Amino acid sequence: MVRVVPFTNEVTQTVLYAHGVVPELDTVRIDSPSGGLYLDSSADLTRYRMLLNLAEQASMEPAESRSFIQHIAHEL
After folding, report:
1. What are 27's strand-pairing partners?
2. How far is CA 34 from CA 13, 31, 58, in A?
3. Is the pTM of this model over 0.90?
């Protein structure tokens, strides 16, 4: 599922939250110009779950996101 987050949102970095059936094995990867950073402490996972929940709330719905992406692709 792809969801577009408006530029006006406070999320300013690329974040991948990898999760599975065993929450203790979850990992966050943060991309930056100087490379990737992996986080897996309980405190970091809790913080990034909260941030990603906020980003999801601010994002466009999946259908709206697809339409937006198609619109941008047609303009290229």
Report:
1. 18
2. 12, 8, 28
3. no
Residue type, 17: Y
In angstroms, rounded to a whole number, what is the distance separating the alpha carbons of residues 74 and 76? Answer: 5
Give the residues across from 30 on adjacent strands. Answer: 15, 37
Q: For the residues 18-44, what does the mean pLDDT come to?
A: 91
pLDDT score of 12 more than 90: no
The two tokens of residue 11 are 């999320």
DSSP, residue by residue, 16-39: EEE--SSGGG-EEEEEETTEEEEE
**What is the predicted pLDDT for the residue at 10?**
59
Euclidean distance between CA atoms 65 and 50, whole angstroms: 22
Rounded to 5 degrees, φ, ψ at 15 are -130, 130
